[in-house]
Amino acid sequence: xxxxxxxxxxxxxxxxxxxxxxxxxxxxxxxxxxxxxxxxxxxxxxxxxxxxxxxxxxxxxxxxxxxxxxxxxxxxxxxxxxxxxxxxxxxxxxxxxxxxxxxxxxxxxxxxxxxxxxxxxxxxxxxxxxxxxxxxxxxxxxxxxxxxxxxxxxxxxxxx
Length: 160
Known about the structure:
Number of domains: 1
Distance between the termini: 30 Å
Shape: globular
CATH class: Alpha Beta
Strand order of the largest sheet: 3-2-1-4
Order of helices and strands: HEEEHHHEH
Radius of gyration: 14 Å
Structural class: alpha+beta
CATH topology: Sufe protein. Chain: A
C-alpha cells in the first residue's frame, strides 16, 4: 500500500467518523476558524487543566480534508501541554507547506499522512485551518481567517 492510498484511507475514515466531533461543555478556550475561499468553518473548544489540554472538541462545516485534519489534530493534542501542542502545530504547518523534512526528528506521527497536501496548493489551507484555529484558541483569539493580512499561513502559501 502506497502513501497516497494510506492518505486517502485516513482522510475518508476521519471524515466519515470524526473523533471529538461535537460541542464541549465548560470549555475555557474557544476559537472559530474560517476559510472564506472554500467555505470551511471550524468551531473549536477546549478545556485546559494546568496548561494541559484536558478535553477538546470541534464542529462546523468543512471539506473532507479539513474535517479529517481537525479530527486527527484533536486526538493528537488531547492530553498534551500547551508547549507540546504548539510544537505539533508548528511542525504540521511546516510539513504541509513543504518546509519540514520528515526524515528528520519530528512529533507528527500518523499526521505525516498529510505531507502530500503540499502538492495540492489549493488544499493546504483546508488541512491547516484546524491547526490555525487551535493556535488561536490557545492564545485566546476568538476568531481567525485564512485570509487576514497578518496570517502566517497565507504568507507561506499565497492565495490558494
